[in-house]
């Protein structure tokens, strides 16, 4: 009887080792790191609320604020329009303007995005005379969530109708992205 039990055990071990031959048993687990989502997207719509200040109209200071809407049809290119009101108490009691822009940006997924823009538009003053012109500038946006960021930019507005040909304007504000 002993002989049959030993023979059965040897046969079971031989059958088991033949069944698992060529397979490797590993206790290592592969960890795939999660990729952090980029804060800047393709096909992104933005709304800006900003304050502005600058020097134009023969170097006189102006300040004001406005709203803007931008649409980035690709991560790096977009179009925008803004409406603003600016003035001071001495020379220019108030004027408003509408500008359209073409944007070029280079976003870093961790939240920072430098950008450049060029635009055209009109200024309307208290004497109802419109002034056409264009601007060129650049800025920096810091997005601290996927939908909310801060921005600051500067531009040179040029118009042959202005006294010294143009002026410098800076904006800073809050940007909401959808």
CATH topology: Porin
Stretches with pLDDT under 50, minimum 5 residues: none
Assign the CATH class.
Answer: Mainly Beta
Q: What letter string, H or E per element, gives the SSE order?
A: HEEEEEEEE
Task: Label the overall shape.
Answer: rod-shaped
Structural summary, described in words:
The chain is mainly beta and 178 residues long. The chain has one domain (44-177): Porin (Beta Barrel), CATH 2.40.160.20. It has one helix at residues 2-19; strands at 44-56, 60-72, 77-87, 95-105, 112-124, 130-143, 148-158, 166-177. It has an eight-stranded antiparallel beta barrel. It is rod-shaped, with a radius of gyration of 32 Å. The mean pLDDT is 84.
Summed up:
This protein is mainly β. It contains one helix and eight strands.
Write the layout of secondary structure elements.
Elements: H1 2-19, E1 44-56, E2 60-72, E3 77-87, E4 95-105, E5 112-124, E6 130-143, E7 148-158, E8 166-177
Antiparallel strand pairs: 1-2, 1-8, 2-3, 3-4, 4-5, 5-6, 6-7, 7-8
Throw out a few tags for this protein.
178 residues; mainly beta; Porin; eight-stranded antiparallel barrel; 8 strands
């Amino acid at each position: 009887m002993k002989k049959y039990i030993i023979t059965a055990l040897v046969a079971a071990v031989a059958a088991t080792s033949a069944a698992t031959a060529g397979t490797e048993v590993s206790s290592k687990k592969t960890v795939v790191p999660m990729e952090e989502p980029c804060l800047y997207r393709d096909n992104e719509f933005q709304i800006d609320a900003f304050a502005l200040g600058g020097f134009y109209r023969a170097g006189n200071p102006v300040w004001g604020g406005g709203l803007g809407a931008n649409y980035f049809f690709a991560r790096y290119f977009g179009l925008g329009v803004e409406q603003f009101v600016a003035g001071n108490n001495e020379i220019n009691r108030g004027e408003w303007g509408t500008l359209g822009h073409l944007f070029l940006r280079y976003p870093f997924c961790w939240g920072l995005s430098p950008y450049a823009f060029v635009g055209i538009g009109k200024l309307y003053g208290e004497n109802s005379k419109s002034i056409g012109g264009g601007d060129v500038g650049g800025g920096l946006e810091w997005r601290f969530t996927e939908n909310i960021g801060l921005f600051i930019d500067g531009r040179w507005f040029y118009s042959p109708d202005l006294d010294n040909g143009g002026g410098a304007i800076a904006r800073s504000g809050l940007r909401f992205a959808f």
